[in-house]
User: Fold these one by one.
Assistant:
Number 1:
Amino acid sequence: MKKLVLVRHGQSTWNQQNRFTGWVDVDLSERGIGEARAAGRALREQGFVFDLAMTSYLKRSVRTLWLILEELEQMYLPVQTDWRLNERHYGALQGLDKKETATRHGDAQVLKWRRGYAVRPPALTVDDPGHPTNEPRYAAVDNLPGSESLADTLVRVRQWWQEVLAPQLAADRRVLVVAHGNSLRAMVKFLEEMSEEEIMQYNIPTGIPLVYRLDDDLGVIGHDYIADEATLAAAVSEVKNQASAKA
């Protein structure tokens, strides 16, 4: 049996402010730093040892990984970064307050933008300063998005899985992946063979390790969060209610 550990980055400063973040490169909040360290301690207490780690190009994910590795005392691990693990690109919504956006456009529309499968938010134009074509880190990447649906995110995450992660797992390497709410939701969708309706309702909390048990063909045997039920339920509920105008 193979194990794969997934962790959504700790709370970011824009999570704290309840703003759409996407590819904007914000850092962790103080709470997020604590969540990352707690995730590392939880993994250490469970005896996890890894061969390598993988994360996105965004600092909230990278810093979460650093803090986890520090708590694990495994900072020597090789780390692979890949833009395909980035959060879903929220286009022109990036920077907007989620509740204010829900008040303006309605909870149903914002739910579709946040959790819908094939709905893209309004896109950034290529000449917008916030478009990723204007960032040196993405200079080698073709066809950069100005907005993405979860379906778009799944395409790149599945490609990354097939090209990068699956060969490592097949070779029995123990891998820690630290990424984002939507890149991880995309991964969970194809691992669990979820429907579009099921993934729309699925939320991943910040800073709580999710451990997948896989067979030799990388099929899912089972999975568990490293958290007690009350902590997990509260964390999932917080994510679920972020964009409700009534919350």
Note: Residues 150-170 form the longest helix (21 residues).
Number 2:
Amino acid sequence: MALYEHVFLARQDASPQQVETLTEQFKGVIEAHGGKIEKTEYWGVKSVAYRIKKNRKAHFTLLNIDAPAAALAEVERQESINEDVLRFLTVRVDELEAGPSAMLRKRDDDDRGDRPDRGDRGSRGPRPDRGDRGPRRPREDAGTDEGAL
């Protein structure tokens, strides 16, 4: 069987419970056709790049699937019929990610509070010494340098 990453977007009006019901429905179709779901991730409600069927946001869900192509064809057919599903994308991969996806890792990175302040230079230390440049020239003399443009 082939390995797939499948993401579908559900309407923003749908509740998280309705999205979970949709996910369970699609899992059932895949398992009925001899496939199995390796991992399911709910990414939450996110903004979409452009309006899709009058929606500016959508519920994002990722499914890592190990199934025959016929199972994916049936899931995609049912998603195209369902009014709650705005878009879906299936990508065949050589191997599935074991840990959390990049979207969940990104959310974890955003939540961490151990980053230094912008003014704190951390272990890099102060800027290297540029040497004494001397006082600035008056404005009228600034353009008289030979190398100046």
Note: The mean pLDDT is 83.
Number 3:
Amino acid sequence: MSSKILSGAVIGLNCELVEVEADVSPALPGIFIVGLPDKAVDESRERVRSAIKNSGFYVPRGKVTINLAPADLKKEGPAYDLPIAISILITTHQLNLKNNWDQQVFIGELALDGQLRPINGVLSICLAAIEKGIKKIYLPEQNGAEASLVRGLEIYACRNLEQLVNHLSGQKLINQFTAPEFFSAGNQSISPLYDMAFVKGQQHVKRALEIAAAGGHNILLSGPPGAGKTLLAKTMVTILPVMTMAESLQVTRIYSVAGLLPSGQPLITERPFRSPHHTASGVALVGGGAWPRPGEISLSHRGVLFLDEFPEFPRQVLENLRQPLEDGIISVSRAAGTLQFPAKFILVAAMNPCPCGYLNDLDRNCSCLPAQIINYQKRISGPLLDRIDLHVEVPKVKFDKLTGDQTAESSAEIRKRVQRVRDIEQKRFGNLGIITNSEMSSRQTKDFCAVDEKTIELLRQAVNQLGLSARSYFRILKLSRTIADLAGEEKIKLEHVAEALQYRPKVE
């Protein structure tokens, strides 16, 4: 007799349902798994054998063949332990499962004593189950809260294999898991670790960060060591608006697949802030690997990616940012196929003006040779700089401001203005599939960023004198749209474009 039940294979951020079949035949005893399993799946035969025995059941003495279909789809991870064990118990008549095998999904890792351990990617599996019309899912107890984020599923969170078998046999039923009421992104308050109120001076930098947060624009901070670039970058996340439920689910799905979902926190409600070291590899930054996983740019989706010491990153690593900065997605291509991960983040980069850091400093002399300065600045390519909307110089803070008692505007107050602009953007774009001004296409920029003749003349002069590219032109319009929104203006005015032009890099 053979048996068949359903499980799920996470591929990128998506999931494909997998049929787990078991068959016992008279031959030398052993468990054999076929269907392109990886090492973790292949080793599950030993975990399953011990879990079945230690849960009070028996392992058949014949040859047990486990097939994971479709056979041409690679299977990875320990999530198949539970469906393999259940399939074996059904095949050996130790468990009688009714014919509705195609209406329930089993996932979970088994310990040697039969206890169930949590797995990654549960949210993706549950979403796939709903799309396929699946009614029930059985999973480890620790994954129950994450699964409950998907409405419409009957969720049964189990502690161990024995408890699940008793439930399926009708001997002792498991209560259906219900979601706690506090899973609401809109009601979550963010306690900023870094508040703008305690950043001395740098008012023009704070203004630029506010514009970047309101419109989702990229920003580059350049200044001498100790000017506060890193501190200002860390305050960026505290002025971003509270995430919507849709954004929280997107970010949670990414972190679940990556195995980075915090323990006891099934829903991520705070915007991500990722700050990889400049020694990070290209794969770490954009994602990939033999079994592709999200990289730092996807982990900062709908949040902030902070690249400190920007020129110290290898140039070939930084060049990987060009496509996601433009498209908001990253495509990871392998021989087996191409996967896409979302990457709509705000890039905040920080750099020194030269290797020693004191170029154009009024108090200290620069010790760098002209060739060293040129080579240092050329580590960042022109096409990458062209994708950064705001280029801001961060000077040293004067001693009087450092020791002053005056408290600056708090992050909470700035966030209110940013939230107001985000509400305007939401109303403006409606169902266009974009959230911020920076995401507008060229056609949408033409529709929502109309300017008068005087402003067009200013833009014409700027393009000719600064040698701006077509991309820069459209980015200036998007930036002007955000500045106008902060000012509460429906139309873009001359002063809004003038301010946007001030944030373009200076031509040497």
Note: The radius of gyration is 28 Å.
Number 4:
Amino acid sequence: MNTSLILCLAFAIGVIAGLRTFTAPAVVCWAAHLGWINLHGSHLAFLGSIVTVVIVTLLAIFELVNDKLPKTPSRTTPGPFGARIVMGALSGGTLAVAGAQVVLLGAVLGIVGAVVGTLGGYQARHQIVTQLKVKDIGVALVEDLIAIGGGLLIVTRF
């Protein structure tokens, strides 16, 4: 796999983190656990452990449910936005390590992807709901499917 593709995938997994904070690390952890990506011998090998997979998967499921609740703050507020940036960095850096690239470059691209995914996802969802006059939950469920499917598509490219 060439360097450009790996770095594009690091950016793309960041976009997924921007859509759903814990979906990106969840698919990365599952990919490591299932052997789709190789983290053996790296400082990130723990991401493939069953304990990490279970914890991050539960966090992802909780987030998918919590996103639909009326009291959930916007993804663009500092706390959720910061979490998406951190998870984008972790996920992008992990894919860079799996592709034998520089972890810092993958993390930076993951951060940029998370910013794009956060702001773009917010705008897209808001515009679809207001312009088409549809219920937010329907758009949110489609966004869930895009995040999960997109994340799986990304990690299976290795």
Note: The mean pLDDT is 97.
